[in-house]
Amino acid sequence: MRTLHTDTERGEAAALVQDRQRWLALRRLPVRARADIPALFRDPQTQPAGLFEDGKLLACMIPKRDPGLGWGKGPYLFLGRVHTLPDQPDDVTRLITLWASDFAARLDLPLVRAEALARHTLDAEPIATFLRRLTNMGWEVQGSGPGQEGDRVARLKIAAERRPGLGALIGCRVHEPHAATPEERGST
Fold first, then answer.
1. Which residues contact 22 (CB under 8 A, 6 or more apart)?
2. Cis before residue 126, ω within 30 degrees of 0?
3. Which of 7, 8, 157, 166 measures 20 to 30 Å from 72, CA to CA?
4. If you count DSSP H runs as helices and E runs as strands, how many of each does the chain have, helices first?
5. Among 26, 23, 24, 21, which Cα is nearest to 41's?
6. Are 49 and 40 in contact (CB under 8 A)?
7. Smallest Cα–Cα separation from 40: which of 65, 20, 62?
8. pTM
9. What does the DSSP 8-state code read for residue 187?
10. Nearby residues of 67 by Cβ (< 8 Å), 6 or more positions away
11. What is the mean pLDDT of residues 36-51?
12. CA–CA distance from 26 to each of 2, 22, 23, 59, 113 (Å)?
């Protein structure tokens, strides 16, 4: 897992996001419509991170510290705009979960929060199956409501936990995310 520094790496992440959005649309699954997410990954100011295996980008996200979601209290690491390469096994999501929990603990943050697009009630398919997989990985569903772009989302959290042996499985070269400014918090 590493911060995406170069235009090439950020471009690869933007392409991964576009591939994922196309994959979701072809399956009539919800896709965020209110933001140009690929452009966010191209922007070096967002400090996106990517999960690589043997040089291949498997997932990308934008980690932030306390971005002011409007739900949940206290300090936390937020995994924003998580996208995985289409047709990858749940192992990628499990690695992201393990890394995020460990990374938050190393930053002395008690939680990781995330959002999953949920157009309907959380017990309706396809979100219900996805949320069951996440809860089996340790995530807790904290209800639903408007997300960062105003779309209806499932709100998720997982406790931070140091995982000393994780370094043998997944290396981390992600920069510590900065706390959101009051202006950034007001814009979510």
1. none
2. yes
3. 166
4. 5, 7
5. 21
6. no
7. 62
8. 0.86
9. T
10. 78, 80, 148, 180, 184, 185, 188
11. 91
12. 30, 6, 5, 20, 28
Instruction: Give the DSSP letter string of 90-147.
Output: THHHHHHHHHHHHHHHHTT-SEEEEEEE-SS-TTSTTHHHHHHHHHHTT-EEEEEEE-
Tokens of 109: 């943050």
CA geometry: angle at 101 spanning 98 and 104, to 5°? Answer: 140
Side-chain-side CA neighbours of residue 181 (13 Å): 2
For residues 83 and 90, what is the distance between their CA atoms, to the nearest angstrom?
Answer: 13
d(CA 138, CA 96): 12
- pLDDT recorded at residue 78: 94
* Residue 82: both structure tokens together: 């998580």
Torsion of CA 28, 30, 35, 37, to 10 degrees: -80
Residue pair 57/16 in contact (Cβ under 8 Å)? The answer is yes
Contacts of 44 (CB under 8 A, 6+ apart): 5, 7, 10
Tokens 């157009």 belong to residue: 119
pLDDT in tens, 89-141: 768 999 999 999 999 999 999 999 999 988 888 998 889 999 999 999 999 99
